[in-house]
Design a protein that fits this description.
Strand content: 25-35%
Pfam families: 2OG-FeII_Oxy_3
Distance between the termini: 80 Å
Oligomer: single chain
Low-confidence stretches: 318-327, 363-368
Number of domains: 2
Structural class: alpha+beta
InterPro entries: Oxoglu/Fe-dep_dioxygenase_dom, Pro_4_hyd_alph_FE2OG_OXY
Bound molecules: 2-oxoglutaric acid, fe (ii) ion
Shape: elongated
Protein name: Fe2OG dioxygenase domain-containing protein
GO molecular function: metal ion binding; oxidoreductase activity
Keywords: Iron, Metal-binding, Oxidoreductase
Mean pLDDT: 80
Length: 368
């Protein structure tokens, strides 16, 4: 039965079958390539029904394989036999499903193979064998190009091209940070982070690069297109010294103590102190800066940042954002305010940076 004649409750895209297919069938770098499954047919085999040996008809140059799901309807026989280059392989779903009590568990058996592999279904000896077949295709990488007839209105700041142009224009200005430096972009969206982050778990700030939203994603891509290397940092503003901010490029788990969070990040988590730079490259003078100098832990590094967009209002790393922003009280995740820091080279050679922001930090005045 063709795909337009039946409805299937099973959502192949939401099941993790395609991930398994990628890992099991594709290799040599291909396992990370995006693929898609197109629903093809429903087959019902009664007693004595079979499918004679064949290769699946290619339905496009991008089709590479087939996926067959066998439902847990009681049956015997009907094994799927695969043959390729003199080798033969039998997939007896009836046996697999019945042997493991999967009938009760409502599980399905599945197999994926390359389209050029010959296969046949042996006669069903009792019951009904019900299968769904999918054609497997290489999926085009996610694209931002839409058909012209589709009219889409983007918020201006989410427009990758417009953001890129504005940045390129600024970087072409020889009076803007003439010696190079670090740009800071307070991101416009807040992002959920695991509240009880433990050391050893993947750094969520690394993962965040793939999860940026809207204008943040446009900004990130625009910076990369200019051969720059934006890095997500958490920024914390001292409650006691409002002119002082502290940045850390990895997640930190902070206990709830009376201690100033910023101070703890500097002292215990390899944080850097962030001071504001002006467009001409000089540091902005703060009131109270000297006071803070005395208070800094020994060996603290300082980075001067020109803030392109101000970082968010509430930067306290362990703040309970859920109370304010969540639609459901939860304790597992918190929203955090993230900034992108990006090094730029000197005028005329902006992509020529000395690497990550952390490598460009200055010694604090307290170390002199
Ligand atoms: O039902 C099966 O197991 C396989 C069906 C098949 O090979 C096909 O529909 O092309
Ligand atoms: Fe087939």
């Amino acid at each position: 039965m063709d795909a337009d004649n039946f409805f299937l409750g099973f959502d192949v895209d939401r099941s993790r079958v395609l991930d398994v297919v990628r890992a099991g069938l594709l290799a040599g770098g291909d396992e990370t390539k995006p693929i898609r499954a197109e629903l093809y047919k429903l087959n019902v085999y009664g007693k004595d029904a079979f499918f004679k040996p064949h290769k699946d008809t290619p339905r496009g140059t991008d089709m590479f394989g087939s996926l067959v799901l066998v439902f847990p309807t009681p049956h015997e026989g009907g094994a799927l036999v695969l043959r390729h280059e003199g080798n033969e392989w039998t997939f007896d779903a009836a046996q697999i499903l019945s042997a493991t009590a999967h009938y009760e568990l409502k599980r399905v058996a599945y197999i994926a193979f390359f389209s050029d592999v010959e296969h046949e279904v042996l006669p069903v000896t009792s019951g009904h064998r019900v299968t769904i077949t999918y054609n497997l295709y290489w999926a085009p990488p996610p694209s931002v190009a839409f058909p012209e007839e589709l009219s889409i209105i983007y918020p201006k700041h989410s427009n990758f091209a417009a953001v890129g142009e504005a940045l390129a224009e600024l970087l072409a200005d020889p009076t803007f940070l003439p010696e190079g430096g670090t740009l800071g972009f307070g991101l416009r969206h807040a992002y959920p982070f695991e509240k009880h982050w433990k050391y050893g778990m993947p750094n969520p700030l690394d993962q965040l690069r793939g999860w940026l939203k809207g204008s943040d994603a446009a900004l990130f891509r625009a910076l990369q297109a200019l051969s720059l290397d934006p890095l997500p940092w958490l920024i914390c503003q001292s409650e006691e010294f409002s002119d002082v901010a502290v940045a850390v490029d990895h997640m930190v788990s902070l206990g709830r103590t009376e201690e100033d969070e910023c101070y703890m990040i500097l002292r215990d988590h390899n944080g850097v102190r962030v001071v504001e730079k002006k467009a001409d490259g000089t540091l902005k003078a703060y009131e109270g800066n000297e006071l803070y100098e005395d208070y800094l832990p020994k060996g603290v590094r300082t980075v001067g940042v020109f803030w392109m967009t101000k970082f968010g209002e509430s930067n306290s790393i362990s703040s309970e954002y859920t109370a304010t922003y969540g639609n459901e009280p939860t304790t597992a995740y918190v929203y955090m305010v993230v900034s992108l820091l990006v090094d730029i080279g000197p005028a005329g050679d902006r992509a020529n940076t000395k690497g990550v922001v952390g490598a460009k930090v200055m010694q604090s005045a307290s170390q002199k």
